[in-house]
Amino acid sequence: MVRIQFQTVRLEDKPFFDRFFRSGQHHNSECTFTYYYMWRKAGNIRWALVDDCLCILLDFMGKPFFFPPYGATEANFAGVIKKMEEYFQSVHKPFYMRGITKPFLELFQSRLPERFSFSRDRDSWDYVYLGADLSELTGRRYSKKRNHINAFLAMHGNYCYRPVGRGNLAECLTFLDRWFSSHNANRYLEKEKEAILDIMEELDSLDIQGAVIEINGRIEAMTLGEAINDTTAVIHAEKANPDIRGLYPLINQQFCRRQWPDKLYINREEDMGMSGLRKAKESYYPFQLLEKYTAQAKE
């Protein structure tokens, strides 16, 4: 048995991760270094190179799981999965994998048929939109969004849209502190705040782009995202003052229009099974729900 040598996620690992994620083959929200860097503490994330594949292990509340082995091929897939199984045996835990997109599901079915059981993980499906839909909000189905934005413009027509950068970092952090303080604290929000603050400290080292909406000189909304590949951008975080009508749809529209005009798709990540978040994401009419599955070894 070969023991996998794991490492923690460090900023200097970014070029290595990018080798696997910049190929253009993946469009799911987990395929950026930023994702693993920002959640590395909350998920006790570790990684290893196994047979030329990037293997990422997350241990959330005592239930470890792997993501699919990035870089796997028909030739080495079965061998990498076997080593993952051996790892779980060594820690006396059952094999468990999440984030399995359809290409990886097909690898399982072709290389390891009848060995694992799979379940659709609806709460983790990514909402993928056409960039033009979010930028323009045209057509009857987006009439409510346009009405909300028009109501905002009628009240705050002198708003300012600004990029996030070192020049306004302190104001951004003040806004985030205000936003999280105004929402009922729970374990997820505490971890999310920590994750966002972590990447805000490393704006110059990560590939993140961001923007804020200012009203009367005060930041009232902020968003952060990055390109996954040449065709797709992902939104990592979006926060706005919920008491200001139209602010959420405005920053979503303006960020897509100004920052990502060349992207065919915008991935706004999953809803985590939260009913309010699911309703909000569905209201933008996704072009695709990017399905993901879990895998467990059969008895």
From TrEMBL:
Tree of life domain: Bacteria
An annotated Gene Ontology molecular function: acyltransferase activity
SUPFAM superfamilies assigned to the protein according to its UniProt record, in alphabetical order: Acyl-CoA N-acyltransferases (Nat)
Alphabetical UniProt keywords: Acyltransferase, Transferase
Residue span(s) of domain Phosphatidylglycerol lysyltransferase C-terminal: 24-295
Signal peptide: none
UniProt-listed InterPro entries: Acyl_CoA_acyltransferase, LPG_synthase_C, UCP018688
Keyword Transferase attributed: yes
Protein name: Acyl-coa n-acyltransferase
